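Same chain as my last thread, 98 residues:
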Amino acid sequence: MAQSSTVLSKTEQQHVAKVLEHDAQVVSNTQLENELASQPQKTQDEIIRINTQARHLALQVALLIPILAGLAGLGISFRMMRLPDPQQSGSGEQVVLG
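reply #2:
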């Protein structure tokens, strides 16, 4: 995302890409604006735009993992319904636990 920026210089693009790849966190735009206060306005706007796109993608991927786990559990539960009940062994006497 940072590589396609026309506002950031090559070094800024590389720095933003490195930070997104290694130290990515879900940060609000307000927190990011405070961190970028010393940067020019164009640079701030571009980094906030990149962060917003990256945040949406990261949250979608993070949501996909529990959805897949839930679907796997649902599939396993249907398989368990098809298993026959275990047969009682022994001479027919029922054991009462108490």
